[in-house]
Specification:
The protein has 564 residues and is an alpha/beta fold. Helix content is 35%, strand content 12%. It is built from 18 helices and twelve strands. A ten-stranded mixed beta sheet has the order 3-4-5-7-6-8-9-10-11-12, sandwiched between helices. Strand 10, helix 17 and strand 11 form a beta-alpha-beta unit. The N and C termini lie close together (7 Å).
Length: 564
């Protein structure tokens, strides 16, 4: 609701952050909605939906943003916003949010501000927005200031940090299994490591841990909207950023000008249908991430097998032979790791490498072929640092965990996860184990003070555009369908392609529809489907931009440079 390689990171929207450790089919009918002028509000939170007012919190002055160049001569401006730790107690402790902006490039044509959340939870917007700025549609960059921020608890903002030093954090990381645990001894070590992490977190700043929920961040977002002077919100959220956007839309429905939600989380799966009962399944199994990752992996192997080894190094000359080769490699790694490349680490790396088709799928094929031949793969290089003062903030597992675990219910007994993982493996193979153990750190995590659990169907001032990719290894297409069905007024745009988020796995068709919607409110025709620009293992591939991994639920499952 974004990990980022050996350290865990669930749903990483794949926007590449630097850290230690996602053809147009013409329709006969068009449908457009013109974005009207500002909606007049009768109070700070008085938008009415379904006969009930949105829950209110005390009004506070908007934070002041003192914009200055992030680096001398650079294109991005930076600022710091102060917001209440607890929006229900505005006179209490305050925290800081690191904020970044690129001004609209079209002189005299500026519409307002587009706020961007890169997913995770755990994606630092001050790093990932500059890295991905050129991926936004050109007209959007011309017409909007693009603003992002490190959400509370993350990166360069007031951050969750459960260790006294970098050395202490690295020692903790090296003491637990990479990827996910295999066997009783590794399970014991994994569970003990996360219990230790949580104890350290509670000792260092228990108050902050209680106030890093999605609702808290949605209220921060509304404060930032006020700070830039926009009467309504224009927003693009990917991966975890979709559940943040949906939360905002239902807390402040009259303030939605335009909202694009790309690679969605089913709100009912995220909240366990708003139930207080101990959930039977962890979040990612409720979402269907395991099944979606398995389907995407199957397509990777089939397309690889249909390509030459010049285009896909792991190809065995046909889809079935390549699938068999992969299964044989996984069986071998369970008993004979290649250096530090265990079965758990390799499965985790494989799922994360599926997030970004170019260059992720080709790089994954190279790594798998190295392992097949008994060679340890070379580390994936980090993307170049963006022009910001702090391009490599600390992003330990506890930052994503603090948001994800405190916000989305998961089984509270660590002992049940082994059986759940094996059941998931029956339906989804190796990715089933990966996505099950991604939630286990939540078993003993404290619950947030404020968790938004619905309703999700408050009528918004303007409709929402929901984008779903058909083969997504983290957020299934069915979750995009669910999100479009849950929201009061939403249009689903289908991205026929691969990887996690259409932003990072681009389609010119999707970009065009997003531009028209964000600029003037024109929705794509109902049932519109768009194709990815460059299929996997095609003769020509785009290069540069973003490394594999991303901001979606980054920090809990093994990752590259991102999360959900």
């Amino acid at each position: 609701m974004s990990d980022p390689a050996p350290a865990p990171a669930p749903m990483s929207a794949p926007v590449g952050g630097r850290r230690r450790c996602a053809a147009f089919i013409a329709a006969l009918v068009t449908c457009s909605t013109v974005l009207a002028g500002p909606t007049v509000l009768t109070g700070p939170d008085r938008a009415v939906a379904d006969g009930a007012p949105v829950p209110s919190v005390p009004s506070v002055p908007a934070p002041k943003l003192d914009w200055k160049p992030c680096v001398q001569g650079g294109a991005f401006d930076c600022a710091t916003a102060k917001v209440p730790l607890d929006h229900g107690n505005p006179g209490g402790r305050t925290i800081e949010l690191a904020v970044i902006k690129h001004k609209a490039t079209g002189p005299g044509r500026r519409i307002g501000t587009l706020f961007f959340n890169p997913g995770g939870p755990g994606g630092p917007g001050t790093v990932q927005m500059p890295q991905n700025y050129e991926r936004f549609p050109q007209e959007v960059r011309e017409r909007f200031d693009v603003v992002s921020w490190d959400p509370r608890g993350i990166g360069n903002s007031t951050a969750v940090n459960c260790f006294a030093s970098t050395e202490e954090a690295e020692a903790w990381t090296s003491g637990k299994p990479a990827g996910f645990p295999v066997g009783a001894r590794q399970r014991t070590a994994w569970i003990a490591a996360y219990k230790e992490l949580i104890r350290g977190c509670q000792q260092r700043d228990p108050e902050l841990l209680r106030h890093v929920s999605t609702e808290d961040t949605a209220r921060d977002l509304d404060q930032l909207r006020r700070a830039v002077g926009d009467p309504q919100l224009t927003y693009l959220g990917i991966s975890y950023g979709t559940i943040l956007g949906a939360t905002y839309a239902n807390l402040f429905p009259a303030r939605v000008r335009a909202m694009v939600l790309d690679s969605n989380i089913d709100p009912q799966a995220w909240t366990n249908h708003a139930s207080d009962a101990d959930p039977r399944l962890p979040t990612f199994l409720r979402m269907g991430s395991d099944v979606s990752a398995a389907a995407t992996l199957d397509r990777f192997l089939a397309l690889c097998g249909s390509a030459t080894t010049a285009r896909c190094a792991f190809s065995a000359g046909g889809p079935k032979a390549t699938r068999d080769k992969f299964d044989q490699l996984m069986r071998r790694l369970r008993t004979h790791p290649v250096g530090a490349w265990t079965y758990g680490r390799t499965v985790g790396d494989t799922v994360n490498s599926l997030y970004v088709v170019h260059p992720g799928w080709t790089s994954l094929a190279d790594k798998l072929q190295d392992l097949w031949q008994g060679r340890a793969p070379e580390p994936t290089p980090l993307p170049p640092p963006p022009p910001v003062p702090h391009p490599n903030p600390y992003q330990g597992d506890e930052q994503a965990g603090a948001v994800f675990c405190s916000d989305s219910p998961n089984p509270r007994d660590p002992a049940v996860y082994d059986a759940l993982a094996e059941a998931a493996a029956v339906r989804a193979g190796d990715p089933g184990r990966f996505w099950t153990w991604a939630s286990e750190p939540c078993a003993t995590w404290p619950v947030a003070a404020h968790r938004y659990r619905g309703p999700w169907n408050r009528p918004t001032a303007h409709p929402v555009l929901v984008v779903g990719t058909t083969y997504d290894p983290a957020t299934p297409y069915r979750d995009a369908q669910a999100m479009a069905g849950e929201l009061a007024d939403a249009r689903l745009l289908t991205h026929d392609g691969y990887g996690h988020t259409a932003l990072i796995n681009p389609s010119s068709c999707v970009k065009e529809h997003e531009s028209r919607y964000l600029v003037d409110g024109t929705l794509p025709p109902a049932g519109t489907r768009c194709r990815q620009d460059t299929p996997p293992f095609s003769p020509s591939r785009p290069s540069g931009g973003v490394a594999t991994g991303g901001g979606a639920l980054a920090g809990l499952v093994p990752r590259h440079d991102g999360g959900l």
